[in-house]
């Protein structure tokens, strides 16, 4: 199966130094347009549009980017509960139709209670996951029902629901989710298509894949898997490690532009897993480097792969062999790294995956 490569678009130019997040700090339409275009030209399949309680609205960000790109799709982060599931279903179906099938959805329930409370949601996280499961169930009914339907659930009650527009992608756009808590895994196993994981060592990743496949099989479902890394490339391996150490130094500086400093308090189960691996050692499987995850409290995608483009592509292909067919890669110099990934990393990853597929078929 062809490998899927995902990037992440930001809405404002980053400040100097190592950039951990790209969706905070206002909105620059020109920068967003250009950033999306370099993803398109670099050969990414999708670009993640992130979500915070203060960031620019993701569907409109993606719509603007879609108008200025040819083939790039958009993985829009969406928090169930802030708009009705019937409206969300129509928004997604409308976007899918208008862009020729260039949308996927990443279901998130909020990294922290504080973030949710910024927007008036005081439900605890375990309740948010139950609500998300019901929310997805309603959206799927909207996307696939030819007739009006009623729905009676714990969180939503509908009478005579229907939609005039249905998705172009059948039966619906891909639904991603992430998380390590019981609530997240239960929701994803029953309702989502792609389990999105942060970069962990190979043995731990293989275990997670096997366990989640078993969960999903109980519902007659076969999920796929995405894994996220921050590649740090160099013309030589030594140059890559030198660059990695410079990035770590910038992140650790007081008043650093990332806004994190040396914050080690994990927000959720997934972050706690990364910090546990960081405590076990800086480097795993030769290229997986954890000090930046440790320095930031593992907020978001902070697992690094360090080396030349060929070495990092080979490291990614080890995950491909485990059954990971989708990779989210983004750099600490977001714009320039996107260009470099398209020139150096993505072609090697695609070629290596195709070679593995041919060998397996033979």
Q: How many strands?
A: 13
Radius of gyration: 20 Å
Q: How would a textbook summarize the main sheet?
A: 8 strands, parallel, barrel
CATH class: Alpha Beta
What is the number of helices?
12
CATH architecture: Alpha-Beta Barrel
Query: What general form does the structure show?
Result: globular
Based on the model shown, name its key terms:
single chain, about 350 residues, alpha/beta, TIM Barrel, eight-stranded parallel beta barrel, two-stranded antiparallel sheet, 13 strands, about 45% helix, globular
What topology does this entry show?
Layout: E1 4-8, H1 29-42, E2 46-49, H2 58-67, E3 73-78, H3 85-98, E4 103-107, H4 113-118, H5 125-144, E5 149-152, E6 157-161, E7 175-178, H6 182-191, E8 194-198, H7 202-217, E9 224-233, H8 237-252, H9 269-280, E10 283-284, E11 288-289, H10 291-296, E12 304-307, H11 309-322, E13 326-329, H12 334-361
Parallel strand pairs: 1-2, 1-13, 2-3, 3-4, 4-7, 7-8, 8-9, 9-12, 9-13
Antiparallel strand pairs: 5-6, 10-11, 11-12
Helix pairs in contact: 1-2, 1-12, 3-5, 5-6, 6-7, 11-12
């Amino acid at each position: 199966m062809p490998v899927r490569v995902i990037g992440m678009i930001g809405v404002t130019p980053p400040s100097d130094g190592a950039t951990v997040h790209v969706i905070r700090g206002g909105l620059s339409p020109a920068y967003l347009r250009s950033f999306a275009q370099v993803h398109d030209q670099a050969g990414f399949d999708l670009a993640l549009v992130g979500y915070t309680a203060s960031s620019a609205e993701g569907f409109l960000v993606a719509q603007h980017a879609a108008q200025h790109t040819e083939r790039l799709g958009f993985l829009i982060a969406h928090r169930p509960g802030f708009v009705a599931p019937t409206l969300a279903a129509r928004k997604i179906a409308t976007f899918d139709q208008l862009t020729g099938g260039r949308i996927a959805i990443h279901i998130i329930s909020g990294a922290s209670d504080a973030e949710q409370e910024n927007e008036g949601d005081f439900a605890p996280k375990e309740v948010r996951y139950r609500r998300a499961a019901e929310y997805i169930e309603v959206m799927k009914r909207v996307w696939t029902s030819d007739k009006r339907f009623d729905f009676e659930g714990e969180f939503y009650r509908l009478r005579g629901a229907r939609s005039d527009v249905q998705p172009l992608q059948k039966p619906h756009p891909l639904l991603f989710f992430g998380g390590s808590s019981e609530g997240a895994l239960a929701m994803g196993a029953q309702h989502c298509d792609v389990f999105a994981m942060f970069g962990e060592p190979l043995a731990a990743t293989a275990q997670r894949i096997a366990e989640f496949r078993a969960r999903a099989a109980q519902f007659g479902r076969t999920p796929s898997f995405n894994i996220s890394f921050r590649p740090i490339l160099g013309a030589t391996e030594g140059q890559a490690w030198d660059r990695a150490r410079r990035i770590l130094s910038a992140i650790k500086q007081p008043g650093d532009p990332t806004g994190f400093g040396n914050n080690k308090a994990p927000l959720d189960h997934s972050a706690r897993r990364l910090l546990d691996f960081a405590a076990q050692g800086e480097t795993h499987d030769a290229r997986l480097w954890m000090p930046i995850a440790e320095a930031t409290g593992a907020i978001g995608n902070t697992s690094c792969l360090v080396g030349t483009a060929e070495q990092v592509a080979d490291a990614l292909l080890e995950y491909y062999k485990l059954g990971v067919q989708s990779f989210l890669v983004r750099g600490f110099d977001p714009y320039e790294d996107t260009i470099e990934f398209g020139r150096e990393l993505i072609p090697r990853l695609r070629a290596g995956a195709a070679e593995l597929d041919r060998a397996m078929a033979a």
